Amino acid sequence: MIVTGILLALLAGSLVSLQTVFNSKVNEKTGSWSTTTMVLFTGFIASFLISLLVEGKNTFSFQHMQPWYWVSGAIGVGVVFCLVQGMKLLGPTFAISIVLTSQLSFALLFDSMGWLGLEKIPFSWNQLLGVLVIVGGIVLFKFGGSKNKKSEKTRGALRSDS
């Protein structure tokens, strides 16, 4: 069961990255709001049809759902819009790495506090350290190689001058 969960999480990560790239390409041709509308509409149609096939009439069973869960669709608007804009401003790798770190940080917060109906999981300093290591990796990834690029450009300029 753990292996299946890990495989599904890996698949989800790859799909988020793939969708973000597609969203960015659509945004180049249209605009951020039309991209968001198209993404969420096609997602609605696909998930609705799959739900009808898999769950049948239980698709419409909402009796035991907290009323505040209904805002998740509106949150999805923010997710798609912010991802598209973030990729436009930062590039795909940097934007996605920040998004994933943010997700992990907020998941740690929500789990530790037991918010949003989640089972409260005790906070540990090792969890926070893990998030900080990821943040350090992102900083190293983004800014660690810039010196090499500058020195290569400088060496190239020096060679062309001689």
- Structurally, the number of domains stands at 2
**How far is it from the N-terminal to the C-terminal residue, by CA?**
64 Å
Largest sheet: none
Considering DSSP H and I runs of 4 or more, what fraction of the residues is helical?
A: over 70%
Beta-strand fraction estimate: under 5%
Secondary structure: number of strands: 0
Q: List the total number of helices.
A: 6
Shape: globular
Model description:
This protein is mainly alpha-helical and 162 residues long. The protein folds into two domains: 12-57 and 71-90, no CATH class; 91-145. Helix content is 79%, strand content 0%. It has helices at residues 2-29, 32-55, 72-90, 92-113, 125-143, 146-161. The protein is globular, with a radius of gyration of 21 Å. The N and C termini lie far apart (64 Å). Mean pLDDT is 86; it is low at 154-159.
Summarize the structure.
The protein is mostly helical. The protein is 79% helix and 0% strand. It has helices at residues 2-29, 32-55, 72-90, 92-113, 125-143, 146-161.
Spell out the key features of this protein:
globular; 2 domains; mainly alpha; 79% helix; 162 residues
Secondary structure layout plus pairing:
Layout: H1 2-29, H2 32-55, H3 72-90, H4 92-113, H5 125-143, H6 146-161
Helix pairs in contact: 1-2, 1-3, 2-3, 3-4, 4-5
